[in-house]
Write a structure and sequence with these properties.
One of its GO terms (biological process) is DNA catabolic process. With 238 residues, the chain is an alpha/beta fold. The protein contains nine helices and five strands; from the N terminus they run E-E-E-H-H-H-E-H-E-H-H-H-H-H.
Length: 238
């Protein structure tokens, strides 16, 4: 059985900033789909630890500072629960699908670090963004989740809400596996390892492009997580 015919767990965050090293979690969703089982979802709205949500971020995901402070749960508690839920997914052997995983996993890791929680255990991660850039590298146009949904003919209801994005990312990953048999033929371990290399190559290529006009530009190549104590520019694709 190929990985894409089994259970998939979608993971998505909406945050205060495109910088994964400083962003605070506003909303989060972990959804489980596939394998002919009912879809399940866990959602969080946080109080962003009392911080302000910039207008630009609120315009993207629709959550204002007032709403987060009034209705959100304690961010520390939310981070603990998110880590716990993802740990259960990992222990179940279910791969985690995350669009531009480097961003979401790094945001969660820095939140865990702030509150003194243990880092998330190693997981099998599937990143439709990295995969798309590898299998169709010369296709022009954007590679946002909205663009990938259009390209792979996946319905996206409510873009930039964590639950909608998490489900859509799983659907895109499934489409990628059905369209490119070489992906479906890989084991989860092989696919994860391949994406580590692909992400590094993609970052190096983008860095080379940026340096034509910005000689000191640095694009982070680590995947699916930016190691702690590193401060590189980060590409936010969604």
């Amino acid at each position: 059985m190929s990985w894409h015919t089994g259970r998939l767990a979608g993971f998505d965050l909406e945050t205060t900033s495109p910088d994964p090293l400083t962003a605070r979690i506003v909303t989060a969703c972990i959804v489980q789909v596939g394998a002919k089982q009912p879809t399940t979802a866990a959602n969080w709205l946080t109080d962003v630890d009392g911080e302000e949500i910039p207008a630009g971020a609120a315009a993207v995901h629709g959550i204002s500072t007032d709403k987060a402070h009034a209705e959100g749960v304690d961010l520390r508690l939310a981070v603990e629960e998110i880590l716990g839920a993802l740990t259960q997914v990992i222990l179940s052997g279910i791969p985690i699908v995350a669009m531009n995983a480097r961003y979401d996993f790094s945001v969660l890791d820095r939140e865990a670090q702030r509150y003194g929680f243990q880092p998330l255990a190693d997981a099998f991660v599937i990143d439709p963004f990295v995969i798309d850039k590898q299998v169709d590298r010369y296709r022009p146009g954007k590679r946002t989740l909205t663009a990938l949904c259009e390209h792979y003919e996946v319905r996206l209801d409510g873009a930039h809400s964590a639950d909608a994005d998490a489900v859509a990312a799983c659907r895109v990953a499934w489409r990628q596996a059905t369209r490119y048999p070489q992906l479906a033929a890989m084991t989860l371990d092989e696919l994860h390892t391949a994406q580590v290399g692909w992400a590094a190559e993609q970052a190096a290529s983008l860095q080379e492009h940026f340096r034509k006009t910005q000689p000191d530009a640095v694009v982070e190549g680590a995947w699916p997580l930016i190691p702690r104590q590193q401060t590189h520019l980060e590409e936010r694709a969604s």
